[in-house]
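ping. complex inputs:
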Amino acid sequence: MLINCVAYQQGNKLADIPVSEIGNYLHRPDCFVWVALKESDDAELLEMQQQFSLHDLAVEDARHGHQRPKIEEYGNTLFTVMHMVEYTPTDELVVGEVCVFVGHNFVLSSRSRSSQNFLGVRERAEREPHLLRHGASFVFYALMDAVVDRYFPVIDSMETELETIEEQIFSPGTARQNIERLYALKRRVGVVRHAVVPLMEATGKLFGGRVPQVCERSQDYFRDVYDHLARCSTTLEVLRETIATAIQVNLSMVTIEESETTKRLAAWAGIFAVATAFVGVWGMNFEHMPELKWAWGYPFAVSVIVGVCALMYWRFKKSGWL
Amino acid sequence: MLINCVAYQQGNKLADIPVSEIGNYLHRPDCFVWVALKESDDAELLEMQQQFSLHDLAVEDARHGHQRPKIEEYGNTLFTVMHMVEYTPTDELVVGEVCVFVGHNFVLSSRSRSSQNFLGVRERAEREPHLLRHGASFVFYALMDAVVDRYFPVIDSMETELETIEEQIFSPGTARQNIERLYALKRRVGVVRHAVVPLMEATGKLFGGRVPQVCERSQDYFRDVYDHLARCSTTLEVLRETIATAIQVNLSMVTIEESETTKRLAAWAGIFAVATAFVGVWGMNFEHMPELKWAWGYPFAVSVIVGVCALMYWRFKKSGWL
Amino acid sequence: MLINCVAYQQGNKLADIPVSEIGNYLHRPDCFVWVALKESDDAELLEMQQQFSLHDLAVEDARHGHQRPKIEEYGNTLFTVMHMVEYTPTDELVVGEVCVFVGHNFVLSSRSRSSQNFLGVRERAEREPHLLRHGASFVFYALMDAVVDRYFPVIDSMETELETIEEQIFSPGTARQNIERLYALKRRVGVVRHAVVPLMEATGKLFGGRVPQVCERSQDYFRDVYDHLARCSTTLEVLRETIATAIQVNLSMVTIEESETTKRLAAWAGIFAVATAFVGVWGMNFEHMPELKWAWGYPFAVSVIVGVCALMYWRFKKSGWL
Amino acid sequence: MLINCVAYQQGNKLADIPVSEIGNYLHRPDCFVWVALKESDDAELLEMQQQFSLHDLAVEDARHGHQRPKIEEYGNTLFTVMHMVEYTPTDELVVGEVCVFVGHNFVLSSRSRSSQNFLGVRERAEREPHLLRHGASFVFYALMDAVVDRYFPVIDSMETELETIEEQIFSPGTARQNIERLYALKRRVGVVRHAVVPLMEATGKLFGGRVPQVCERSQDYFRDVYDHLARCSTTLEVLRETIATAIQVNLSMVTIEESETTKRLAAWAGIFAVATAFVGVWGMNFEHMPELKWAWGYPFAVSVIVGVCALMYWRFKKSGWL
Amino acid sequence: MLINCVAYQQGNKLADIPVSEIGNYLHRPDCFVWVALKESDDAELLEMQQQFSLHDLAVEDARHGHQRPKIEEYGNTLFTVMHMVEYTPTDELVVGEVCVFVGHNFVLSSRSRSSQNFLGVRERAEREPHLLRHGASFVFYALMDAVVDRYFPVIDSMETELETIEEQIFSPGTARQNIERLYALKRRVGVVRHAVVPLMEATGKLFGGRVPQVCERSQDYFRDVYDHLARCSTTLEVLRETIATAIQVNLSMVTIEESETTKRLAAWAGIFAVATAFVGVWGMNFEHMPELKWAWGYPFAVSVIVGVCALMYWRFKKSGWL
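pong. complex structure:
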């Protein structure tokens, strides 16, 4: 579905143009075309391929979707795939995809499976003609920046969730729930990492050494994007490691709790076993058991039993078993 | 066993030719020969070696089999080994092998231990003469692409299996079965990884920097294959890590379950120990135990015991032990 | 908030100058300006940007804060972000941030979220004009050195804490507390690592190979800073690994303790179970149990029971169960 | 101990020569000398050093033994150390060592602590004069190939052993034995890895980039050796990882088994505790317990007890505890 | 403290010279000075700095101590820090430090916190003038070699200790002691690793590629030192990994032992619970329990109980629980 298709000259919007006119505008000097698609079908992509002379393999990837994040050069055209991650209102993590084709005088973006849009990017760019004058590479930077900036709230909310779990991890009785949440969180961290890390590696080739011609004059900007991605990546690495440790610590806590339960079980079992043994003694049927005939035998026996049990209780308490 | 041996000119099939004629066709300009073998024996390989002047060591590897995936240059000839993985109908993972020799005007493929064939590749190639015109390197690409595309369903079915196990991992009583399945799955993932990763590394040398002469004009295509392999590799890495975590989590779940069992055991044991101690008390043979003579002594005693036990039950229930 | 803004010539302080005069001093030969800000607001940063012609993206990063440690070149200006870590009096670890802009004739530092200051650095530098004569790069070195030197006491106090925990790890009954402290320590080590490691990597580019022009004549000094950071990094790596092992060992100790508890439980339970079974025997109501009528039957029975229990106690003691 | 010392010309054996004649033959064109030593003493090595002008440090290493696998250039001479691993008839893994000095017209091998010999290599080489004509580098390749080929059966037998253990790992009651065998196997895998991996890294420098002059014309052959070593290394890596997982899984299985034991213990203990409590009730000495006087009281009581126990048994069975 | 200060010419000792004369000797051609210090104070280092024109930062490092192992170039002077590890007679591991400054005509070593000395190195060097003629770089090599050679006995004694622990790890009842010893050993391995690995990395830059001028003619010697360090490093890596596995295996063994204890506990508890339930049955006070009146009732009951218990014992024995 075509969202918009606009021609710009010297950083200013010329006009919304029909797709069929793209070719004409591409030949004008100082002019570039910025097209945005959404959930595009094969026919649209085919038309775009013809208008912009895109490479078969790149269009094939865009059509097929489910690519890993990457930046590939096909002649003078860059083909970029980025993942867009967002939490749905029901707290599920969904991964959308945006493919961007960048030539020296055009930008074509095609996003799918995501509710996020780039209207804000276009509006801001149009309000700053002195930046938009840099042409396609600046638009490309603005799109990347928008995608990357949206990783931060997702990562932040993961950090918050981890902190919530961490608070519970040392309180007893929550082990099962913690482990389930840690496992789910680890998977989500993995999803975001596989959006961030390959993109970071690819972006690392847009500044510094040999740089695709299209990006040459905007290297500082792409280094900035790289830096943001590196920040994401570091945070995700910390999350990952902390989750791994938390899973291990959770197991330790369960074992510690169980160990304490076993101790208490041992202690109480001991106390009652002693009581049972004692009452059993006086339940024996020997004829000559003088204490059985004493007037105060019964209270005496009960006192002995209670006394022994109290003594044991006190000793167990002292040694920390109860 | 020879499957077919065909000469092509300008992207069009010339003729099925006998093996002994290969030499003649190799000398014609713009002509190339594409030979496919299957479970080839030593005699066949020797004949091919003579026809195509293949290197001793490469033929030795092809003859011996059980190589790791690799791409080696012998002069102007490329020798490639790829693993073909597939699930049998009985859900076992089998690994076949295909060796491909690529010269500037010939392709020789020899597959073994696999039910998959490349007839589809040849048919599709013959239907697109404009691509087949690129010659040996395009055929080589088409073969690689066919092998790599068949990794995806295998990896997908592994992901599905992992998801099935994950659903069970948090439900009690399935620990033994989960661990067996995770262990088996981990081994299978390892098998596919050792098909994918070395091939990916080798393919990485077919584009970008110094590239074997044969592949020079098809670099974009080999980068596409590389990209597919990188996608496989990432997915396998995720699988591997998730399995490792799942094994750890499974152990945690067992420990948690055991811990809960121990608690319940402690609780019930405690309740019955108390009951036993009480009935023991009134089973003592003291002469002066006034309650024994009470008319309502027995019901009273039973009430006391039941009451105490009920109290304990309630307390244990409240503190989550039962 | 402006702390100070001083112009230096030939290594000697010329004067405290107002911000608006900076431009004039920058044009004098052999003269450089050293400005220090603290918790600077947008207006201050904007003014500085104009005075020193700083790059938009760098100022944006400084304004936004929460950057990872890095050193970036924008033309001839270096933009550096360092983390300052310190323990508060209440033993919490806080992370401040200092941004340093270095040109060939100016240094601008802006710190935030930290109680540490750099007055000492300025004083020492002013006392050594022969060093200060090296200009901006020496000041930059002095600032880095000051930040890095403050990592050592923090790391030392972490080592001390780990040693305290290690002493406890093999003493029984401290498992829960140990694991909590190890977990907290591991997180703190992570925080300092993420201050040290990226800075170390960035500093590694200030000597040896291609070096930013500003730092060219002070390479030995930056190698020294790098060496200090490498020392920190090694110590942190050791800490990290030791903590990981300690967590594992702690779990082992809990399991060992539990195992011993289980053994003792088994032993005592066994002894009392035997006693209870025996007293039960003589509590049976058979008419023809001759020992029940013996004069010494009761003492005999008690002796038998005590004897058997003592025998069991002795055997369990010998085999290490008690 | 000298095994043989032979001069070759044009790929054909000239003569067995005495050690003192070596110098003469080295000066003849197209002639090379191949000497094999075994458990050589200092005097022999000294003589060889003089005959072949070997470097002090290399001879020192050969004399001292217990080197790690390596390939070092001393001027135009290569000094190679390889480990030879083999199983003794009593299934112990022994590591021998072979040092090879390779010059452009000589090969000197000296092996120690190994029952394996290289007679087969010499025989095969002498039967193929067209290969032996390549001179010292071909002999060097043949020796490496012989050493490396002997790694495969050792690794195969380790794989077989691991498979045997794996079959047992999920059957109960074998945990202690499994863990002992896995631990021993892991150590043995480590021994072979330290024979294979450094040699592979060293061999990687004998083809491709800058190559020692001696090996220049046989690069394809050394790449083949490298490929074999890479195959060994991959298999060892898989073994290592599988063993690590198996140790972890074994621990899981023990915990699972223990958990089941605990459950059954809980169940049976519960059933008998109930029975004991019931019989205790009717063992109480209250005067007014009407059921005690009933004619069918006893059978009734036993029925009640058996009934309750049977009910519990059935419930436990149903919930999988028994 | 000055140990000695000697001038050499052409590999022969000229004279013990006072520190103040050093400058004169440094100017003589073919002459070099070798100074050894021990626990040097600031004044001594300052004097040395003046005599040899050492760099501020290097002297600062030497004065401050507690550096990580490294080799740094300051102009034409190399500054080297090495750790010396040794076991005290009471089996503690102490780490000393030796700083070596190497110029083209001088060597200055300063060691601290170590009882080891380098007198042997000097004596051996003076006995071999043909080697000492190589000048400062040979002395530097000799010192490194001496330090590195002393790592081997320390590492050997660690291997011996690990073997002792390994023998115990599978024998029951030693778990607590094993884990303590493994933990301590792991820490000691870490200490030696941090002496070996950074030194190895630094030494790797003294041969092969661009080499400091001072070491240029002795590259083969430094490669030999590197090789020794690589050997140490490999052994330490194996130790580290084996310890990690041993800690894991130790935990497994504890769990296995505990599991067996639990089984035996279950078995014995079962047997006695059955006995107790039976005696309880005949302790009931029903009037109509015919067996209570039988003459042989008592022996019969005891036989029944003993019989049932024996049957259970036999079954448990057979199924491996006892």
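The CA atoms of residues 120 and 288 of chain E lie 101 Å apart.
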